Amino acid sequence: MGLKASMIKYIHKVRSLDCDTTFKPVAGKTNIFEINGWMPGINKELTLGRVWMSEHDRRTFQFVWEEFMSLVKRLTNQSLTFTALHRGGTLLGVNADMEAAPLLGMADALLQTINIPSVAEQIKTPAGVIKKTVRACYSHVKRGLPDLSHLSLEDRDRIKNFMYIETVEEVEVFKVWIRTVADPTGVILRWWEHKEMHEWLLPSIIQCLSHMDADIWHIMEATSNFGEAQHSKNNLEAGTGMGLVQSFIEYDDIDARRAAAIEVMIRSGNLHNPRNEVSHRYSHRNARHANATRKLQQARTEREELEDAEQALIDAQA
Predict the structure, then answer these.
(1) How many other C-beta atoms can be found within 10 angstroms of the C-beta atom of residue 215?
(2) Domain ranges across the chain
(3) Which of 10, 84, 157, 299 has its CA 20 to 30 A from that of 47?
(4) DSSP reduced 3-state for 116
(5) Tens-digit pLDDT profile for residues 266-289
(6) CA nearest neighbour of 37 among 102, 82, 88
(7) Rounded to whole angstroms, how far apart are CA atoms 93 and 278?
(8) Residues with Cβ < 8 Å from 296, sequence gap 6 or more?
(9) pLDDT tens digit sequence for 61-89
(10) Distance in angstroms (rounded) separating the CA atoms of residues 250 and 207
């Protein structure tokens, strides 16, 4: 496990964590589980810690999180805390993909640390911890969508946007409806059954099912894209396909340089990019989405007008 005291101290300053495994840095079977987080004070995504791993089962991740929390306490003199689980907690939650082992292992470790009596009484299982602290990455959710090309546009849109269902009642209606759509190969049903396989998965995707505070849900990122981008940045700086020892050395040097740069930013107030706040990124993204939606609507209108004209011509010739 690679933690540098000069970097890990910022874990108490980030809003939430982006946790994911990256496969390219080290040659062979060893991968790196990265713990990243966005620090609002300097408008940057930080890699706070790394774990070199060759096993990726639930028990291993539980051990990883137990050791990680222990080291955070030793290096910062503060416990790793979540607002939903701990008195005086600082972390809003975790952005993650839908892989079960890392999340269940994390939840196994966190379950024993809850120190708010009312929450401890409410949460008795690891699934309860996930429902309270995890928001699934919508990019990963959308990547897993099956082929819907044979469905009507309305049905395709309904399935693609299931994560935005607003009420529990509407979710129940969707659960019934999804089993009635045309599905000659069964791929849509298998996709949906995966979502129902774990009791915590749909609550991490659909806000109305989540046990997370609604305000926290909306403050947290809808994707783990910042963490994914951090993988690429780390690979660019350190390289890929490294030997194990070489990777230790490279990342230690990188973390030392980054920690020094952060100290300069904080002391000087000179941000790396003053227009790189999450609000700026969302503003730019929303503008792109609005433009794409406008073009799509225009294309639909033109197609409908063409179809109407063709039908009028057919009627005139009849």
Answers:
(1) 9
(2) 5-272, 277-318
(3) 84
(4) coil
(5) 888 766 555 555 555 555 556 665
(6) 82
(7) 16
(8) none
(9) 999 999 999 999 999 999 999 999 999 99
(10) 40
